[in-house]
Amino acid sequence: MADTAGTLPPRRPTGRDVAQLAGVSQATVSLVFSGAEAGHRVSEATRQRVLEAARGLGYRPQAAGRQLRLGRSGMAMLAVPNLQGPFFGRVLAGVHEEAARHGLSVVVSSGWSAATLAEAATTSRFDGLLICSPDDGQLGELPPGTPAVFLDADPAAAGGAPTVELDLAGGMAAAVAHLTGLGHRRLGRLRSAHSAYTFRVRQAAFEKAAAGLAVTECSVSLNRGESAARAVATELLGRPDRPHAVVCDDDVVASGVYQAAADLGLRIPADVSVVGIDNISVAALLTPPLTTVDLPGEQLGRTGVAALAALLAGRQVEPEPPLATRLLVRSSTTAASTTAASTAGGSGA
Fold this sequence. Notes:
transcription regulation; Rossmann fold; Lambda_DNA-bd_dom_sf; alpha/beta; elongated; 5-stranded parallel sheet; 434 Repressor (Amino-terminal Domain); transcription cis-regulatory region binding; 6-stranded mixed sheet; DNA-binding; 12 helices; transcription; 15% strand
């Protein structure tokens, strides 16, 4: 008779196994994975020990049993306006990293509406919501008591829910200051056509920083990608009074400026300097590498999940200052020529 003992499936690790490996009680393991550890004075060191033991064993709490015990599913929804936007990939990476530390699973929704959010908030599928960079038309009233955290969103529209903001104004000011420091006085501006708080902040900061300069602005739909940006940038750079430096609302739009410049026989940065925003992976791969404002997407995601976990545990979430941004100076910007530097005043439409 054949020995089948070696073919039996391995036993699934349990909370008891985690407790034994971490040197804690099963109750402590349950507290950590329920998100209620803070209220029961489980130290951060103990929580990390439990999570490390769980990862080592491959332990995952069973969602169905946990929902029956705690009235929770262990799932959260991250709502982003466009999942194809590279910046949101950075946010998602941070969300997943932090969610694993809190025993949460994350589902992503793209192109959502106010109705989608309301439906998600009123079902038992999700314990809480993370709402990132919403367009104005996407926001509606969430049901009272909905655990929600807003990322890169207008605090005034969050209805008192915690918000995690980026220092967009500081980043834009640094970008314009960099160009003026190089002697540029005639700027182009490719701004988003979307009605979202994040782009209003960028625009207001640009207008303040560029006051007194010659500015030509064009709007572009970010959701239409590089082709739309290329067409608008071709129009901008084809003008008789073309700008000698262009500030873009994101790096995808900036890549469209690269394509338009090549079509027109212009060199970057000798003929036109270019600055983007986001610091997505392609920014460093462009030729020449793109000067851009780094928005800490991963940190935005991690901070949002930590705030949501605190809400789910019944803890107060204190407001924090906007997350720092920084200008990464690469090879797409250079000093203005004598002709470019001598042009100042006025504005274009």
